Automatic annotation (TrEMBL):
The keyword DNA-binding applies. PROSITE patterns: HTH_ARAC_FAMILY_1, HTH_ARAC_FAMILY_2. Pfam families: AraC_binding, HTH_18. Residues 191-289 form the HTH araC/xylS-type domain. InterPro entries: AraC-bd, Homeodomain-like_sf, HTH-like, HTH_AraC, HTH_AraC-typ_CS, RmlC-like_jellyroll, Tscrpt_reg_AraC-type_HTH. This is AraC family transcriptional regulator. The lineage of its organism: Bacteria, Bacillati, Bacillota, Bacilli, Bacillales. SMART domains: HTH_ARAC. Keywords: DNA-binding, Transcription, Transcription regulation. It comes from the Bacteria.
C-alpha cells in the first residue's frame, strides 16, 4: 500500500463516502512514525502483533484484537517482533456519523467525543461480549469494503453506529479522570514540532530551531519530546529519514549515495550506519531482500 496514505492531510474515500480501508504490512522493520489526522481510525490486527503509541499510552495488539484512534489523536505503530505482521486500518471522516441536521446523536454523543469530553473504550481484546461485538462489526466493515456489494456504504455506516452504541455504556467523561487534560495539552503542544520535522526532514534541523517552536530551552525540549514520542528528537528525525529511504531503495536504479542525500543525511557512511542500527541490515542488503521478495511474488 501507499505508506503516506495514512498521514495527515490526505483524503480518505471520496466526498460522497469519506472512508477507506487500508491493509498495512509491518515487514522488514517498517513502521508508521508519529502522525495524526482529523479522521477517526479503527485498527484491526489481522496477523501477528504490533506495538502502538496512542497519545502518551503504549499498547501491543495481538491477532484478532482492535483499537480506536479518535480524531486528532497522535499515534504511531511499530512491529512488535521480527516476524511479519499486518493490520487493517479503517479511516473515516467523523462527518460520516453525522445526520443532515443537528440531532440528539450529534449533541449527546458525537460532539462530546470529538471534543474529548466523552472518552470511549479504545482497546478491544475479546474478553467481554461487547468487545467481541465491536470486533465483529469491524470485520464486517472490512468484508463490505472489500466486496462492495449493493448497499455496502449503508451497511458500513450502520456498523460504525453499532460500534458507537456498543461503546457508549462503557464510556467516561474526561472531567472525571485526573491527568487527561494535562496529557492532551502536551500532545497539542508537540504537534507543530512533528509537522515541522515531517515537512523539513530533508534539511538540517538544529535542536535550537525545534526548541524555539515551543519556546523551550534545548535541554527542556529534549526531555519534553522524549516523554511523549518515546525517542529523542535526533532518533525521531533519523527514523523518519530511514522510513523515507526504504521507499527509495525499492527503486533499483537509484544510487544509495543519492538516497542518503535525498532523505537528509549529509554523510553516506552515517546513513548506512543508522540504517543498519534501525533495520538490522545495510541499505544494500535491504534492496537485495526486497528485489528477491518481488521476484518470488511475480513467480
Amino acid at each position: 500500500m501507499d505508506f503516506e496514505a495514512l498521514h495527515e492531510g490526505r483524503m480518505h474515500g471520496d466526498v460522497l463516502f469519506p472512508l477507506s480501508v487500508y491493509k498495512v504490512e509491518l515487514v522488514n522493520g517498517l513502521f508508521f512514525s508519529y502522525h495524526w489526522h482529523r479522521e477517526i481510525e479503527l485498527i484491526y490486527m489481522t496477523y501477528g502483533s504490533a506495538l502502538f503509541h496512542i497519545g502518551t499510552d503504549t499498547v501491543i495488539l495481538q491477532q484478532g484484537e482492535g483499537l480506536l484512534i479518535p480524531s486528532g489523536q497522535l499515534h504511531a505503530s511499530y512491529p512488535d517482533q521480527e516476524q511479519p505482521a499486518y493490520f487493517h486500518a479503517i479511516v473515516c471522516d467523523p462527518q460520516l456519523l453525522s445526520s443532515s441536521t443537528y440531532d440528539a446523536i450529534q449533541n449527546k454523543y458525537l460532539s462530546p467525543w470529538l471534543e474529548r469530553k466523552l472518552l470511549l473504550p479504545d482497546i478491544y481484546r475479546r474478553h467481554t461480549a461487547w468487545e467481541r461485538s465491536v470486533l465483529h462489526y469491524m470485520e464486517d466493515m472490512m468484508r463490505q469494503y472489500e466486496g462492495k456489494p449493493a448497499g455496502f456504504e449503508l451497511k458500513i455506516k450502520a456498523d460504525l453506529l453499532a460500534i458507537f452504541a456498543e461503546l457508549l455504556p462503557h464510556s467516561e467523561h474526561s472531567s472525571d479522570l485526573p491527568g487527561i487534560s494535562s496529557d492532551a495539552k502536551k500532545i497539542e503542544r508537540i504537534k507543530p514540532v512533528l509537522s515541522y520535522i515531517r515537512e523539513n526532514y530533508k534539511e538540517r534541523l538544529p535542536l535550537g530551531e525545534l526548541a524555539a517552536l515551543v519556546a523551550m530551552s534545548e535541554g527542556h525540549f529534549c526531555r519534553f519530546f522524549k516523554s511523549i514520542v518515546k525517542k529523542t528528537p535526533v532518533e525521531y528525525i533519523n527514523s523518519l529519514r530511514i522510513e523515507q529511504a526504504i521507499r527509495c531503495l525499492e527503486n533499483p536504479h537509484t544510487k544509495i549515495i543519492d538516497i542518503a542525500s535525498e532523505v537528509g543525511f549529509e554523510s553516506p557512511s552515517y546513513f548506512i550506519k543508522t540504517f543498519k542500527a534501525l533495520k538490522g541490515m545495510t541499505p544494500t542488503d535491504y534492496r537485495h531482500a526486497f528485489m528477491e521478495q518481488a521476484r518470488n511474488h511475480a513467480d
